[in-house]
């Protein structure tokens, strides 16, 4: 997990929210783990008519101004990565308003 570019923290959770592994800014962060589990539960119940009965989330992205979270499930584990958003303002692409 440490090899992911721009990664500043990660969590690996069980399906019920127990922290299996963690590192960086998310090391042993039980509060974020609880929020992630609640978000997954919410996403699976948003609109049961729009999704099949056994269709669950595959990936959730949450974006802030300077970082973002990627949440996905694989092999009955939940992976959460916190990554920096790199601004390329030094290349002349910035527009001042």
Automatic annotation (TrEMBL):
Keyword Nucleotide-binding in annotation: no
Coiled-coil ranges per UniProt: none
Example GO molecular function: guanyl-nucleotide exchange factor activity
Domain of life: Eukaryota
Keyword Transmembrane helix: no
Subcellular location: Lysosome
Chief location category: other
Keywords: Lysosome
Cellular component GO terms held in the UniProt record: lysosome; Ragulator complex
GO biological-process terms attached to the record: cellular response to amino acid stimulus; positive regulation of TOR signaling
Family as reported in the entry's similarity comment: Belongs to the LAMTOR4 family.
Protein name: Late endosomal/lysosomal adaptor and MAPK and MTOR activator 4
């Amino acid at each position: 997990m440490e090899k992911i570019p721009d990664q500043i923290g990660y969590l690996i959770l069980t399906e019920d929210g127990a922290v299996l592994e963690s590192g960086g800014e998310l090391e042993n962060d039980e509060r974020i783990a609880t929020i992630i589990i609640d978000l997954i539960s919410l996403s699976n119940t948003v609109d049961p008519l729009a999704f099949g009965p056994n269709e669950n989330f595959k990936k959730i992205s949450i974006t802030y101004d300077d970082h973002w979270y990627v949440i996905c499930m694989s092999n009955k584990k939940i992976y959460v990565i916190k990554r920096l958003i790199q601004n390329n303002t030094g290349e002349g692409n910035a527009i001042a308003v």
